[in-house]
């Protein structure tokens, strides 16, 4: 594990997913609607096209969903990657998320949706994800996801969880342990290191995308 690299990427992850986007070539309204797009609508379409691919995935219950249309569009979400047979960063991040879901239980599955996506879809089947969903006592609103390797990679690259060096990027033990969170309709996106204190993670989600005017969340 390269701690310095992960620490640096954790800090870089605080930058917005796609900030300052005002124009989107090819952005259109549904067929039959001739009203011009606003700058916000163009920016939102561009973010979706570049960073939120509408690929098919499968939940721990085996339900087929589309990443953008079904999971992210019009929602406030958290996104992270893990894999089942991981003895390094994954258990720490997932344990933190288990605590985060409790801190934000009043919002979970109503205003907030959490998604954990496997980095090894060839190994982490629906049954494996269901076992881990139960192991981390995931509440309604926290969904575990798998899919075709190429589709999972599109999501990982889209949200910016890749290394510039292809050799490092292929090494799953070096995967980025950040949590990406966003308010899709408002185009607010940020991230935190997944091994940060659970209360800090919860507060970051609240302040950044859930309730920006909030002063915090209850502490345990």
Instruction: Give the end-to-end Cα distance, rounded to a whole number of Å.
Output: 31 Å
Rounded mean pLDDT score: 85
Q: Strand tally, please?
A: 7
Provide a count of the helices: 8
Question: What is the helical fraction, as a range of percent?
Answer: 25-40%
Q: What's the shape?
A: globular
Gist of the model:
By secondary structure, the protein is an alpha/beta fold.
Structure in words:
The protein is an alpha/beta fold and 220 residues long. Helix content is 37%, strand content 17%. The protein has eight helices and seven strands. It has a seven-stranded mixed beta sheet with strand order 2-1-5-4-3-6-7, with helices on both faces. A hairpin with a 4-residue loop joins strand 1 (56-59) and strand 2. Helix 4 (89-103) crosses helix 8.
What attributes does this structure have?
single chain; alpha/beta; 7 strands; 220 residues; seven-stranded mixed β-sheet; 8 helices
Task: Spell out the blueprint of helices and strands.
Blueprint: H1 3-12, H2 39-51, E1 56-59, E2 64-66, H3 67-72, E3 76-82, H4 89-103, E4 112-118, H5 126-135, E5 142-146, H6 149-158, H7 166-170, E6 178-183, E7 188-193, H8 198-210
Parallel strand pairs: 3-4, 4-5
Antiparallel strand pairs: 1-2, 1-5, 3-6, 6-7
Helix pairs in contact: 4-8
């Amino acid at each position: 594990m390269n701690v310095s690299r992960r620490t640096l990427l954790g800090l870089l992850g605080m930058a917005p997913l796609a900030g300052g986007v005002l124009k989107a070539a090819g952005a259109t309204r549904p067929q039959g609607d001739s009203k011009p797009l606003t700058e916000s609508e163009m920016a939102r379409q561009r973010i979706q096209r570049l960073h939120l691919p509408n690929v098919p995935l499968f939940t721990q219950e085996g339900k087929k969903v589309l990443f953008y249309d079904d999971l992210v569009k019009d929602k406030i979400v958290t996104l992270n990657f893990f894999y089942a047979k991981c003895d390094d960063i994954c258990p720490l991040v997932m344990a933190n998320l288990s605590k985060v879901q409790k801190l934000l239980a009043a919002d979970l599955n109503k205003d907030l949706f959490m998604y954990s996506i496997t980095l090894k879809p060839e190994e982490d089947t629906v049954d494996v994800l269901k076992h881990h969903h139960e192991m981390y006592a995931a509440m309604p609103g926290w969904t575990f996801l798998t899919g075709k390797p190429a589709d999972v990679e599109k999501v990982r690259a889209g949200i910016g969880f890749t290394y510039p060096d292809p050799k490092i990027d292929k090494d799953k033990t070096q995967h980025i342990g950040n949590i990406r969170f966003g308010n899709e309709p408002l185009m607010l996106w940020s991230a935190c290191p997944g091994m940060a204190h659970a209360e800090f993670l919860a507060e970051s989600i609240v302040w950044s995308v859930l309730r920006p005017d909030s002063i915090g969340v209850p502490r345990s």
